Predict the 3D structure of the following.
Amino acid sequence: MEAGRALSVCIAGATGWTGRALVQGVLEAQDLELGGAVSRSAAGRDLGEALGREPLGVVVRASVGEALAGVDVLVDFTSATAVKANALAAIGAGVAVVVGTSGLGEVRPPELGHPLEDLHGPREARGATVAGTQVHSVRVPSFVVSTEVVFGLPGERLTIRHDAGPTPEPYVAGTLLAARRVRRRTGLTRGLDTLLLEAS
């Protein structure tokens, strides 16, 4: 990518719940441009028209392989059954990948080089010890994006809680941060925490 040129982003799942919000986020960003869109249900149509707005001049493609020409980053918000093939198609074309798709569970595609885990599905629980601290995640129906951090000592507890509303907008800023940074990284990075804690 040439210096000063906007980063070209393709959104797989562009007409979906999160994809629609990401399209708007990319259109509003001065350093990003919408270079492609993938949605089987809207294939062949202008993305803007498929979203019920003015034409955007971006034709929706049925597959990721058809939408990668001139693209720097693929952002995937499709499905757990489609994301592996989408990611491998992009990697094979030299395009960086950001995966936001949920429902992956314990999927571990060896071709991607690292376990992929998802913590957003209902009825899932995860536990781990991180730097000597027990961490546990529980997802239940009715919680779209809910985070509660509890620090405790005998006789006292500090709780920090964040509840996002029922819209996809909370996903947009983090996804666009990942899209901006992914080309600087080598290998697989899991979680936004790594990106948020590293120097810009």
Notes: The chain has two domains: 7-106+167-197, 125-163. Helices lie at 17-28, 47-50, 83-92, 169-181, 192-197. Residues 106-111, 113-117, 119-124 have pLDDT under 50 and may be disordered. The two ends are 18 Å apart (CA to CA).
